[in-house]
Each structure stands twice: as structure tokens, then as C-alpha cells.
């Protein structure tokens, strides 16, 4: 990623992922106090699936989001490459 | 265990080099009601709270670390490439003498973070009311920080963080209700 | 619920106050004060707007700063 320039598409894809993840954070906290809300639970599972696709696409282009084996890496080891979140 | 995710929860942009504002933002980094205090407070209370609210404390505590990283990003960007002279003029001379441009867990006045800021009483109501108060205090701090800058990009991220305090307080109030009503037990019979 | 989150008060102005008096002061009462326990199936923002506002539910949105007195609220 070090040689990769951060184009508009990077920011757009990142934003889309942040949008999914934010809804999932909100639903997680909501379900913590509303464990019997079936509709919220269904929405949560549905969004989790969409989120997975979105994250996969992002990782293929811009490198792994997670580590300790939760994301794959190409050669050479991509995880330690910049940019880090506070740099973009 | 925890897994780090290599992205911010919400985009952080700042529109100018502004070490003065970075100094004030430290209140939410290493201050009494800042994001570090919040994360450590909730995650530590988890071990001695009724089971039906452990999940909530875990998740809000985890989200607070995402907020801590957002505040760090703001401070980092606002001070990046600032000269020692600029830092000194912004009231960060004493900080620079000890830390250079490094971030440190202190409040806006430079007082280092201490565990004395947070509590764990082992009593569910006492702990949850502390948590609600902490969220309202953090909300207020974000308001004063929003008032102190004219940087609309920075304000945008601060408004997001302020709103999160409102939602967290809502959830903690619900947690109080769950504890008071003992809801899970009610459902059993 | 976005409306009426602001309260106004009028501090006493003493004859020997050195700073020019602020006659109207405001403070915020966020929506969590009006909802004891969030009901199920509340309307939601679309995801992009939810992120921008910091909550999925309009009922929990709290604008800041306070909208000008008498103008209602609901927006940034």
C-alpha cells in the first residue's frame, strides 16, 4: 500500500464500509438491551452479511483490515504497510 | 481478546494546523471524562455487574477505544509538522519539552491521567449511574470543544462523538431499567 | 423529538458585573431524557445519514449548537 496513492475511490469505499459498520454498532448496542427484538436482529444479520462483502472488496484493493488471521495477506506482508487510519 | 481494525469509526478531517485546539482536545484524550477513562471504566466494571448488562459494557467500552483513536487522529493532524515555536505559542511548550510532538494521556491542562478518575463500586446501580454521568459530562465537554473551534471539518467529527455520548447514555439508562425490573428473570416464569 | 431540546434561562444581571452581561443562556436537554426505554421499530435514517448524524434513529438525534430560540430544530 505504500506506493498506492489514495484516490477518491479509496475514500468512497472506506466511507461505505464505515456506514455499514456504524449501523452494526448501533444495532449491537440496541440488541444488548433489546435481545428479543426479532426485526432488529434480522436487520443486524442482513447488514452483517452485506458488510462482509463490502469489507472483502475493500481488502482486495487496499489491504487487510484485521489481523491475527482474521484477514488474508498478499506477499509481501501487507498488514504493516502504511497508511494507518490516522494518516489518511 | 481484542482485534484491531485498521480504519477509523468515522472520518476525521481537520482544515488547518491548529496546535491550540489540539491542546484543548487532550481533555477527551486523557481527561477525567475522556475516551480513555470511559473505555477503562466500562471494561473494568464488567466483571462484577449482573450478566444481562455485561454485553452492553463490553460493546460500549470497545466503541470508546474507537473514539480514543479518533481524538488521537485529531491531535495528530492538528500538530503534525508544527514547529516548536508554534507549539509554544499554543501553550504546548511544556508538553514539547517533555514529549516532543508525542501524544500523552493528560488533560487539557497537562495533568496526567489517573485511575482515580474512574470508579468500580461493585454495585450495579452505583456503577451504571456513574456511567450515565460520565456520558453526560463527555457530551458537555464536546459541546465546549465545538464552541472553541471554527474548523467545520473538526466540528463535524466532534458532533459525531457528541451524539455517541447521547446514545450511550440512553443505553445505560436502559441498563438501569433492566437491573431495576430484573427483566430476564421475569421472562423465565 | 428533535425539537425542544434547548432550554433557556435569564441570569440575574448585577450592577457591578464587569463583563458585558449575557442575558439569555441556553442548555441542552438531549432526547435520552424523554425516552425511558427505546421502543422497538422506531423509524431509522438511511445508513449514510445515520453515520453522518451519529445515530441510526431520528428519535435519538440531538442537534448542537442549540438552534436559535423559537426556530425549532432537527438539523445541524
Automatic annotation (TrEMBL), chain A:
Span of domain Protein CotJB: 13-87
UniProt KW keywords: Capsid protein, Virion
Domain of life: Bacteria
Name of a matching Pfam family: CotJB
Protein's name in the database: Spore coat protein CotJB
Annotated organism of origin: Paenibacillus sabuli
UniProtKB/TrEMBL annotation, chain B:
Keywords, alphabetical: Calcium, Manganese, Metal-binding
Protein name: Manganese catalase family protein
Residues reported to bind Mn(2+): 35, 64, 67, 135, 168
Cofactors named for this entry: Mn(2+); Ca(2+)
UniProt record similarity statement: Belongs to the manganese catalase family.
Organism domain of life: Bacteria
Cofactor binding, per record: Binds 2 manganese ions per subunit.
Taxonomic lineage of the native organism: Bacteria, Bacillati, Bacillota, Bacilli, Bacillales
Protein's organism: Paenibacillus sabuli
Signal sequence range: none
UniProt feature coiled coil, ranges: none
GO molecular function per UniProt: metal ion binding
Residues that, per the record, bind Ca(2+): 59
Gene3D superfamilies referenced in this protein's UniProt entry, alphabetically: 1.20.1260.10
Automatic annotation (TrEMBL), chain C:
Superkingdom: Bacteria
InterPro entries according to UniProt: Spore_coat_CotJA
Pfam family, one: CotJA
Protein name: Spore coat associated protein CotJA
Naturally occurring in which organism (per UniProt): Paenibacillus sabuli
Amino acid at each position: 500500500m505504500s506506493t498506492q496513492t489514495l484516490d477518491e475511490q479509496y475514500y468512497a469505499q472506506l466511507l461505505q464500509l464505515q456506514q455499514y459498520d456504524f449501523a452494526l454498532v448501533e444495532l449491537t448496542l440496541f440488541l444488548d438491551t433489546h435481545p428479543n427484538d426479532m426485526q432488529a436482529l434480522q436487520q443486524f444479520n442482513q447488514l452483517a452479511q452485506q458488510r462482509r462483502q463490502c469489507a472483502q472488496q475493500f481488502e482486495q484493493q487496499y489491504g487487510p483490515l484485521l489481523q491475527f488471521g482474521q484477514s488474508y495477506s498478499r506477499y509481501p506482508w501487507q498488514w504493516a504497510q502504511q497508511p494507518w487510519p490516522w494518516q489518511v | 481478546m481484542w482485534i484491531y481494525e485498521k480504519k477509523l469509526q468515522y472520518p476525521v478531517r481537520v482544515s488547518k494546523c491548529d496546535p491550540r485546539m489540539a491542546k484543548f482536545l487532550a481533555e477527551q484524550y486523557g481527561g477525567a471524562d475522556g475516551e480513555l477513562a470511559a473505555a477503562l471504566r466500562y471494561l473494568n466494571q464488567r466483571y462484577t455487574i449482573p450478566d444481562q448488562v455485561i454485553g452492553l459494557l463490553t460493546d460500549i467500552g470497545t466503541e470508546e477505544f474507537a473514539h480514543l483513536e479518533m481524538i488521537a487522529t485529531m491531535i495528530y493532524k492538528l500538530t503534525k509538522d508544527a514547529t516548536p515555536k508554534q507549539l509554544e505559542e499554543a501553550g504546548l511548550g511544556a508538553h514539547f519539552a517533555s514529549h516532543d510532538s508525542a501524544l500523552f494521556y493528560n488533560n487539557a491542562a497537562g495533568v496526567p491521567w489517573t485511575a482515580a478518575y474512574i470508579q468500580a463500586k461493585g454495585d450495579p446501580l452505583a456503577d451504571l449511574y456513574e456511567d450515565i454521568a460520565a456520558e453526560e459530562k463527555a457530551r458537555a465537554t464536546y459541546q465546549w470543544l465545538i464552541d472553541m473551534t471554527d474548523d467545520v471539518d473538526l466540528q463535524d467529527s466532534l458532533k459525531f462523538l457528541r451524539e455517541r455520548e447521547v446514545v450511550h447514555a440512553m443505553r445505560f439508562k436502559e441498563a438501569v431499567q433492566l437491573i431495576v425490573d430484573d427483566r430476564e428473570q421475569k421472562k423465565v416464569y | 423529538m428533535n425539537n425542544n431540546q434547548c432550554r433557556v434561562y435569564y441570569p440575574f444581571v448585577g450592577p457591578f458585573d464587569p463583563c458585558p452581561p449575557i442575558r439569555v443562556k441556553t442548555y441542552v436537554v438531549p432526547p435520552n431524557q424523554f425516552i425511558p426505554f427505546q421502543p422497538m421499530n422506531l423509524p431509522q435514517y438511511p445508513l449514510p445519514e445515520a453515520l453522518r448524524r451519529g445515530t441510526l434513529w431520528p428519535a435519538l438525534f440531538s442537534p448542537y449548537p442549540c438552534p436559535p430560540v423559537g426556530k425549532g430544530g432537527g438539523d445541524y
